[in-house]
Amino acid sequence: MPSLLVHCCCVHCSAYSLKYWRQQGFQVTAFWYNPNIHPFAEHQLRLEAIKTFLNNTGIPLVMSPCYDIDRYFKSTRGSESRCESCYQMRLEAAATCAQDNGYDGFTSSLLISPQQQHDRLTRIGIEVADRHKVRFYYADLRKRYSDSRALTKSQTLYRQEYCGCLHSRHQQDGGQTAN
Ligand code: SF4
Q1: What is the model's pTM?
Q2: Which of 7, 57, 85, 145 could share a disulfide with 94, CB 3.0–4.6 Å?
Q3: Which domains does the chain have, with CATH numbers?
């Protein structure tokens, strides 16, 4: 059975994404690397939510050893598109982990979110896969976004109110910020 590393951005996007790739015949492993989530307490709340969810599914979790917030700020500083740099940083980490540990490929739960920049994500996924000599598995799951939410609805899992970074939090609170 081919093995697939699924970068998970949050439990609510990951629930259906993991199910989908399992249904496609992959042995899936969840991968957590999201230093874009601020502050650290928020990062921990989202991490605990996915850990709780995964405990009930039998899907293993691979985690980056550190929070790596410096890398987020270095990656996005001066960038023309903060979100693009943020995607690049996270997909690069997933591709590196897949390559180093012999997975057949990687993907990301970000592909299910209508709130993310799908075309940019796809382009970056293909680019980093090429560089790391692993395959990027693509599926446009945006029409299943509500199905994913439905899968976690009955569970008392933490639900975030903003994308992740302080900029997105500020925007959610009514401030103006460009991505
Ligand atoms: S809004 Fe912030 S956390 Fe979300 S993708 Fe863009 S840079 Fe990353």
Answers
A1: 0.95
A2: 7
A3: 3-172 (3.40.50.620)
